[in-house]
Design brief:
The protein is α+β, with helices and mostly antiparallel strands and about 450 residues long. The chain has a domain of about 120 residues. It is built from 15 helices and 7 strands. Strands 1, 2, 3, 4, 5, 6 and 7 form a 7-stranded mixed β-sheet that branches. The two termini are about 15 Å apart.
């Protein structure tokens, strides 16, 4: 048996609110994941449907009051989605890099081929000239290899294409050591520029830019690269490539950071969307105006305001729920509870509830419910009470407290004792004229 207690209460209502906030954040995370994946062409409708099915499974945990499991699994799912976006972006970047390299190979091959054909005075069909020029400009041409092979065939002497094997061998000996290349050998021999590490690095970063940056930014970097490649001074060209690589890396890094910050901000806004306060609505309105031009500092400021507002509203609602659960429980046990008590408790930090069966005594509920920790104790309502009954009253209250715990369990709430003083160890606190007065003996000994 125990007298004054420090207790902690966790209500089903506050746990439900937290879980609903988690689910709103998950919904926003799925939206961002789907948009990012579809933007780069690395996400199917079936994968989105499977993710939505997992979301429904997590939401169903509420029905079984598996609140802690839901919070953990939702947090894990959000982390998985963020990692999955990065994984899919890496796949898209690899594909884009291969395309960039193929385009560069085609560009170099077409340029070399056109020069070789011109130097040999070979007449080309006009349609082939136009298409090879397009490949040489760096444009994406689907049948570039076919065009190059067609052009290369015109470099081979007519006799080399028509004579027998024996004649080819004889012609080879007569060509004073010159050996006729096939198209693959010729193409490989003219790719020496591709072995420049700077070119490989810039191609990789151009691919990253294509996946992560806006088209206008990519176009700007691509134009800079074209101008650099026209520079005939190799040393200056390499210096400019180094500078471009640094600029690309910085732009990609900033884009990743900005996207992550915006996604986090939208998740917070989604969690906060259930709040009806004017402050919450105004903050959500500001977030909707955020875009690529919004600075990281501004995003960080808005995110901090969101977290503060969410925490404040959670504390307020949780405190209200805790007060309501305790007072409703005591009312069901026969204690006198009226409508103004919850307001008084919130205002004054304590409230006294009377038990009609025990005149001159009551129960004081103290502490600010925002923390979830309360002080509960039996109190005397008059100075001139029969002190010989104090211990019996504390014992009675201890029994009622046990009943209150059992009652709250049936509604999904939890009331736990964190600290307690034994029955009769300290004199009862006396409540006189609505003000709490503590006897000299009690001072310094209460918990």
């Amino acid at each position: 048996m125990s007298g004054p207690k420090v207790v902690r209460i966790v209500t089903r209502e506050e746990m439900l609110a937290i879980c609903e906030g988690h689910l709103r954040r998950l919904d926003q995370a799925i939206v961002a994941w789907a948009v990012a994946g579809q933007r780069i062409g690395e996400l199917s409708a079936e994968e989105i449907a499977a993710t939505r099915a997992r979301q429904r499974g997590l939401a169903a945990l509420i029905a079984t009051d598996a609140f802690m499991e839901l919070q953990k699994k939702v947090t894990d799912e959000i982390a998985f989605l963020k990692d999955d976006v990065i994984r899919r972006q890496a796949i898209a970047i690899d594909k884009a890099e291969q395309l960039v390299k193929r385009r560069r190979q085609g560009q170099d091959s077409a340029t070399t081929l056109l020069a070789a054909l011109k130097s040999k005075g070979v007449e080309l069909p006009q349609d082939l000239v136009s298409k090879l020029a397009l490949v040489a400009s760096g444009a994406e041409v689907l049948d570039a290899d076919v065009l190059l092979a067609r052009g290369f065939s015109l470099l081979v002497p007519e006799t080399a294409r028509e004579i027998s094997v024996a004649q080819k061998e004889l012609a080879g000996r007569l060509l004073e050591g010159e050996r006729t290349q096939d198209f693959g050998e010729w193409k490989a021999a003219n790719m020496s520029r591709m072995h420049n590490p700077l070119i490989n690095r810039v191609d990789r970063q151009i691919a990253e830019a294509q996946v992560l940056l806006d088209e206008s930014e990519v176009a700007t970097f691509a134009e800079k690269l074209r101008l650099i490649e026209r520079d005939v001074n190799e040393s200056r060209r390499n210096l400019l490539l180094d500078s471009l690589i640094l600029d690309l890396a910085s732009a990609v890094r900033m884009s990743r950071a900005h996207n992550a910050a915006i996604e986090e901000l939208h998740e917070l806004a989604s969690e906060m969307s259930a709040e009806a306060s004017a402050g919450a609505k105004a903050l959500v309105g500001q977030i909707r105006l955020c875009g690529p031009a919004t600075t990281l500092n501004e995003i960080g400021r808005l995110a901090a305001e969101c977290r503060e507002l969410i925490a404040r509203e959670q504390d307020r609602k949780a405190a209200q729920a805790r007060r309501g659960v305790i007072l409703n429980g005591l009312a069901r046990l026969g204690y006198e509870v009226n409508e103004g008590m919850q307001t008084a408790w919130a205002r004054d930090g304590r409230v006294v509830v009377k038990n009609p069966a025990v005149p001159d005594y009551g129960v004081e509920l103290g502490g600010h419910t925002q923390t979830g920790r309360l002080q509960v104790r039996a109190v005397a309502l008059t100075k001139n009470h029969d002190t010989s009954r104090d211990k019996d009253v504390e014992t009675l209250w201890c029994g009622d407290f046990g009943k209150l715990q059992e009652l709250l369990v049936t509604t999904g709430d939890t009331l736990l004792v964190e600290r307690a003083i034994g029955v009769g160890e300290v004199p009862l606190k006396i409540i006189d004229d609505g003000n709490a007065k503590v006897t000299a003996t009690d001072k310094g000994r209460y918990l």
